[in-house]
Amino acid sequence: AISPSGNTTYYFCAIAQSSGGTTYGTVLSFLTNPNTPGDPTVTAVTSSQINLSWTAPSGGATSYTISRCQGSGCNTPAPIATGVTATTYNNTGLSAGTTYVYWVSAVNTTGTSSYSLSASATTSAACTPTTWYRDADGDGYGSGGATSSCTQPAGYAANNADCYDGNALARPGQ
Fold first, then answer.
1. If we measure between CA atoms, which residue out of 87, 80, 98, 85 comes closest to residue 44?
2. pLDDT tens-digit map of 49-96
């Protein structure tokens, strides 16, 4: 009995022996399906992007298929990317504050492996950017030099009420 390895080509030849000599048959070969890739690691990068990475299966693969479903506890994967040749994939255009569950399968010319175990991540909630004003003197009051961001940048204040941003003592109420 043969215990075939994944993504491996095996060759067989039939040989017949008789009193008239030995007859060799046709050499047959077959390629096995690839082994299952390593379980994916998923990281929510933004409110609309999750990055995946995994390890190649022993024996390798030609490409990978990334499958996904939406919502915690979902278990019906649908392919979202085929022919992926790297062991990483960046899933963009996602909805904010949503859980996504991912599976990876390996592909070769013979077929597709079984799914990896699943991994999930939740995109961050959507943000409404705030206008921040440069606070050069660090007194908590800004003036000019506005920027827009979801989190407060260092050296910026949420108001533009500083009457003189070069002196921390010159501010409203002083």
1. 98
2. 999 999 999 988 999 999 999 998 898 999 999 999 999 999 999 999
At 14-55, the pLDDT tens digits run: 777 777 777 777 777 767 789 999 999 999 999 999 999 999
Looking at residue 65, its amino acid is: T
Among 51, 80, 48, smallest CA distance to 64 is for: 80
Which residues, in sequence order, are CB contacts of 160 under 8 Å at separation 6+? Answer: 133, 141, 142, 143, 144, 146
Q: Return d(Cα 125, Cα 154) in angstroms, integer.
A: 22
Alpha-carbon distance values, 84 to 31, 46, 89, 145, 167 (Å): 20, 22, 8, 44, 57
The strand order across the sheet containing 78-84 reads 78-84, 63-70, 99-107, 119-122
